[in-house]
Amino acid sequence: MRNLVISIVACVLCLNCLCHAVTTIPYPPTMIKQPPHEQLFQVSLTQDEQDKPFILECEARGNPEPEYRWTKNGEPFDFVAEGGRINQQAHKGTLEVTTPYDTDEGVYQCYAENSHGVSVSNAVDLIKSELNSFLDEETKEEFVIEGEPLSLACKPPTGYPKPIIFWIIQSNTGALHSINNSRITVDPDGGLHFTNVTMEDALEDAQYACSATSMFRNEYKLGNKIMLRVEAAGIPGQNEVPPTKLYVSPPNIVALRDQKLELSCIFGGTPLPQITWSKKGGSLQNSRVAYTNYGKTLKIRRTDFQDEGTYVCSASNGVGPAKTQSMAVTVQAAPYWINAPNNTNGAEDETASFECVAGGIPAPDVEWFMNGIPMKDVKPNPRRRLDKSANVLTIEALKKSDTAVFQCNASNIHGYVFRDFYLNVLALPPTITERPEPITSAVMSSMVTLRCRVFGAPNPKIKWLRENQDLKGDRFQVQDSGDLEITDVRPQDEGEYTCYASNKFGDIQASGRLEVKKKTKINVPPENFEVAAGKSATFRCDADADLSLQLNIVWLFNGQLINSDMDSRMVQASDNSLTITKTVEADSGVYTCVAKTELDQDEAAATLTVQDTPNPPKIEDVQCDGLTALVRWQPMGDRRAPIQSYTIQFNTSFTPDKWEDAFVSIPAADTSFQVSMTPWANYTFRVIARNKIGPSEPSGHSNVCETPEDVPYKNPDNVVGKGTEKDNLVISWTAMPMIEHNSPGFFYRVFWKREDIPQAQWKNTDIPAWEQNSFIIPSQPTFKPYRIKVEAHNSRGQAHTTATEVIGYSGEDMPLEAPKNFNRMYVKDARSAMFSWDPVSPESVRGHFRGYKIQTWTVDEGEERLREQVVKANVTQSLVTIFRPSSRNLVRVLAFNDMYNGPPSDVIEFTTPEGTPGPVAYFDAIPLGSSALYLIWKKPLEPNGVLTGYNIYYREVKGTELGEIKARKPQITDPRETRAKLAGLKPKTKYRIDIYATTSKGEGEKMYIEVQTNDQAQHSPDEPYFVWSHLPDVDGKAGVRVTWVPAVEGHPGSHFFVQYRKKDDSVWESTPPEENQDSILVTGLELGSLYEMRVVAVDGPFQTPSKVEEFETGGMAAVQAPESGENFATAAWFIGMMCAIALLLLLLILICLIKRNRGGKYSVHEKEVAQGRDIEYPEDGGFNEYTKAATAPEATQGSRTSLNSSVKGPESETDSMVEYGEGEASKFTEDGSFIGQYGAKKKKEDSTSPSALATFV
């Protein structure tokens, strides 16, 4: 252990010595911070203005630490002599100028020097920034004619840098407003140009002002104020001006490489000229070219030699020939480095070579310096050679005295580039400055670099070994830096690698291990998605990675990381899927799943296309031609779903707020369509585009088309003649809207005459109100035919089509005859019977003979609730199918016309036979445990006879298929029963349950529900409750009925059994489990004994017992009779008890009578109905509080498809009387079983102990 510590300490000391040796290697100065080629400064103009300090940066590193000096305009600069306003930062050459003076302008250069050489910075041209004021001038007035082009000159002030010129609107209050108008443009020299002048350009309370700003000084100046006066043209809007040149760039332009190039082409004219650009022999369709000033300026942000050529702009506005202007662009360049040297360490006896090659137009001149001194002034060295033609400096057989800093400068008329570099001649053994990592990890198929940085002079030779073996193959490359690069990493590349470095002064080595990991790979890539706007889109992605690496999956949108915190619509789920909710068109793009570890990553991309309704089209033109209009439009984008069709809509001056379809489904390829119009209207059009997502917003409306007048093109439609009273005729028609009038002065002309009178003459009247759609002719005979027509007229004349003539009738009257000999021929079944009768004469009908009505009702329903069956007029016998089964039905027949029923026939009464019932009025099921259901229903509203019971069937539901049907056993044979238990079911299984009410005729209509049982029980049922009552003694044995009350609000269990024992016995006796009923009879108990009893709720393998209750058997049977007369006196207690019982019974009878008499004041039925329920009534009688109203509404019949269905029966799901304060016992039927426990939850009931109920006899 001690030896290990000593070794570690030795390694640390050795490493420290190596680092110290590297950091103490002497080397010449080299610049790390230096000033730019040009720097601006600002001088305070007044004493109140604060000074604006600035710095001239200069910082170098070297060993030993360099010292600094400056020159100004080529002469030594003594900043100390500036009286303390210029200081130099400690250990740096940076100058801080706290109070700038005008005299500070000049060319500065920084020198950093130590014993090994002199490093020189860029030469910085320090220039004072200034912005002078405009010359004082009065506001000028400029007069121009509307529609003419106009140019306003600006005389900008001098300043440096060159001021930026813009124009503003200055109101008389001093407020300033910018100008942004496609007709108004500012040229590079500051001129303001109006393509054409409008009356709105004349400002009553403001003038145009030329402004100059200096971005460096953050200030602006105002001047050249002009008041514009515009004279109206002779014919407003009609003066046209061909393109007129206002400003174009010079014909020959020199642009500099990497600098901005702007070409201007400003033309005036009316209409507004369109400017197009082209390049001779080239194309402008690339991303490097942009257009500003509404296309009047061509802009190239960074000019390159390929931009040289002739550019042509063309201006046209449809008035006169197009005007063109050519601009020849020549591209030159300030000097730039092609090859430039860097700092170099050399060893003695080696050869060093430096190349300074610069490009530029014109070709730059290259000068060489050594330690800041021109090479021509440096002491000659026979080993140093400068090839000026190739600009290569070579030094052979290096010596330590050759250590120096060299500079090369390339310059032309556009500027210069400067390079400062050193040669450091050393003699050092190899030193590893960056050792290989102890463990480097890489994934298969990747490229990995093992670090090994070595310093030495001469440069050490580096070799790598793996497990002490030479590396073979092109996959292993040793870099100039000493690093080992391995491409296409394979599992066999794993192992120990050694970096070995040597030169003539020594050698050194270091090792590290490479571990190869499994490559990260996406195995479930996202798929392209197409979705309508507003819907959700989900991309799924899954990947595998090496188990030793942490895998993270992130999502990118168009290359940018998605941040769910910034956009809550983007949700990345735990399975790494990405969901975009409520998509919008802007969500369209490329979504990339990136699965990454610390070593590698894999990507997979998918495209989301969010499709939306198209953009509104743009109407380009509407050509009006009489009664047709040619509408032209332009699509403005389909929003990623191709346009399928267009719709043209119109409105008129008659309905300005209502748009109607002129034509729909115009093919997407068409962008023009001819629309027909009606006379005497002002039409406006708009266009709607449609794609598969839906219709676009409408386009803007078009200009107005006016159509000429004409006669009406049609007469009114739907002309009808019909009396509303027995002595009138009403002629009605559909009013014609104003769009159909075709001219002013519109009116209707109504004609009529008797059709049944030969040679009858037409009568007519004019209706001037176009909204009127009827005319009443009074005092007419009853039900006579008339020939009728209605014409349309206007100021141009009658409609050019003939009005259609129709036959109408005057008013009807009540029929006179009742059908005779109405007879029941036979009864077919419980609902239908055949009847016959004699026909009535058509004349007696006094109207349109529409047939006969057979009316029926039952004695219980009353005539006010009769039902009708209609038969045709030529029928005198019919099978009537609307009778109530098992009822006394009354039936009659009558004739009728359109307005009246005739007198009825005699009424026939007969009784229909019994039929099958209708569906139950309500049906529901509540899961009990995991294998049972508790069924609740209400008897049919239409029993159609005497109910005999209910049949229940069930089957499994598997998707859309139904399993084998099974019958519940036993079926229900008590028609009063309204609940049952269905046991023996599978857990977590969906069942369809059918229920049929039955009569002696068989099963009635079915009602069914679908419900799912609970999942397999995972814990014991909740503690159950129970109630019990005594049974009559049989053969000297007692018995009790035990009714289970499950914990319905929790986990009740699926069935139960009873355990009982005599008091103080230790062993419980158990009944068999009861799966189908909720009661068990416990018999065979000894009389006069005290027993303990409990019920046990069961669900699967779990059981839960209830609390234990005690009960005593025997009652009066347990009293022994006296053995002789002498014991009779001892039975007085028995006589007293019997008297007490008699008094109690008498009191109970009195209470019942009182409550019976109070029943009319407390209508339970009405309260039930008010709460949305109804009460089932037993066949036997009861207190009149529960008498059902005769007019109780009928409930809707049908089938239930789901337990959660919103369609409920007309009655409550509970029949409990607790809501009326009748106590807990109301929940039990006369046999003691429970009902209503599984209905809707009610407010918490007062608790009553089961033992208290059990003692009620």
From TrEMBL:
- Which portions of the sequence form the region Disordered? 696-719, 1189-1222
- Residue ranges that the Swiss-Prot or TrEMBL entry lists as coiled coil: none
- State where it is primarily located: membrane
A Pfam family for this UniProt protein?
Bravo_FIGEY
Transmembrane segment boundaries: 1131-1154
What is its membrane topology?
A: Single-pass type I membrane protein
Boundaries of every Ig-like domain copy: 29-121, 129-223, 242-330, 335-412, 430-515, 520-609
Q: Where is the signal peptide?
A: 1-21
GO annotation, biological process:
axon guidance; brain development
Q: Where is the Fibronectin type-III domain?
A: 613-710, 715-813, 818-915, 916-1017, 1023-1116
- Please provide one cellular component term from the Gene Ontology annotations of this protein: axon
- Classify the source by domain of life: Eukaryota
Kindly list the places in or outside the cell where this protein is found, as annotated in its UniProt entry: Cell membrane; Membrane
Q: Which regions are flagged for Polar residues bias?
A: 1194-1207
- Is Membrane found in the keyword set? yes
Which molecular function terms from Gene Ontology are attached?
cell-cell adhesion mediator activity; cytokine receptor activity
What UniProt keywords apply to this chain's record, in alphabetical order?
Answer: Cell adhesion, Cell membrane, Disulfide bond, Glycoprotein, Immunoglobulin domain, Membrane, Receptor, Repeat, Signal, Transmembrane, Transmembrane helix
Sequence similarity: Belongs to the type I cytokine receptor family. Type 2 subfamily.
Record-linked PANTHER family: CONTACTIN, PROTEIN SIDEKICK
Can you say what this protein is called? Neuroglian
